[in-house]
Amino acid sequence: MAEEEIKKDEEIPASEENENKEEAQEEKESENDTLRARVKELEEMIAELKDKALREAAETENYKKRLRQDKETAVKYANEALIRDLLDPLDNFSRAIEASETSKDFDTIRTGVVMVEDQIHSLLKNNWGLESFSPEGEDFDPSDMEALQMQEVEGLDKEKVIQVYLKGYKLHGKVIRAAKVVVGKPKKSD
Questions:
Q1: pTM, 2 dp
Q2: pLDDT tens digits, residue range 6-19?
Q3: Do 141 and 157 share a domain, yes or no?
Q4: What is the DSSP letter of 105?
Q5: Exposed/middle/buried for residue 138 (C-beta within 10 Å: 0-12, 13-18, 19+)
Q6: Which among 37, 76, 89, 188 counts the fewest CB atoms within 10 Å?
Q7: 156: nearest Cα among 178, 130, 182, 137
Q8: In what order do the strands lie in the sheet with 145-153?
Q9: Do 120 and 169 belong together in one domain?
Q10: CA-CA distance, 59 to 72, in Å (whole number)?
């Protein structure tokens, strides 16, 4: 009888052990199912993010292309307004040339050409910020002027512009062409 009780005691733990194994196995399978579901969920999320990243990269590339095209167009037509402004004076020059072929009234033709020149200067100054300067009689300033020649002149106490070969131009206050000048310098006393 004692042996039977020992066997029963041994059998009980074996069935408990089997139950524990089955529970552990079920837990493991449940955990594996949960992990598989999570892996599937993460794989879908990764695929979604990859797709989104590819779309955003393509969108960025398209945006860059549009910017490049817009920039090229802007550069190509940057002077359009200036050219449009100069069309009327060009037409007036053409009329002056035509008039010079048939008319011998040179004073009238000269007056017309001077008017066209004034029109161009006015247009460039008012619409584009271009100003000319002719510094004759002013102190020599190497930042605005280019000395083509120097001459000693009596009665000067400092360098002065005594002749302008070519007037200078400023665009919104910045010198874009220095005036070409002859500079008078004080005569050295012997």
A1: 0.61
A2: 555 555 555 666 77
A3: yes
A4: -
A5: middle
A6: 188
A7: 137
A8: 145-153, 179-186, 160-166
A9: no
A10: 20
Does the residue 12 lie in any domain? no
Do 115 and 149 lie in one domain? The reply is no
Q: Which domain holds residue 162?
A: 131-190
Residues of the chain with pLDDT under 50: none
- 33 secondary structure, DSSP code: H
CA proximity to 145, closest of 156, 157, 153, 137: 137
- Encode pLDDT of 78-103 as tens digits: 899 999 999 999 999 898 888 888 88
Contact of 154 with 125, CB cutoff 8 Å = no
Strand partners, 130: 171
- Transcribe 28-67 into DSSP letters: HHHHHHHHHHHHHHHHHHHHHHHHHHHHHHHHHHHHHHHH
Please tell me the distance from the alpha carbon of residue 138 to that of residue 156, in angstroms, as a whole number.
12
Long-range pairs for 102-110: beta carbons < 8 A, 24 or more residues apart: none
Same domain, 118 and 90: yes
* Number of domains, the chain: 2
Tokens of residue 76, six digits: 């190509």
Encoded amino acid at 4, one letter: E
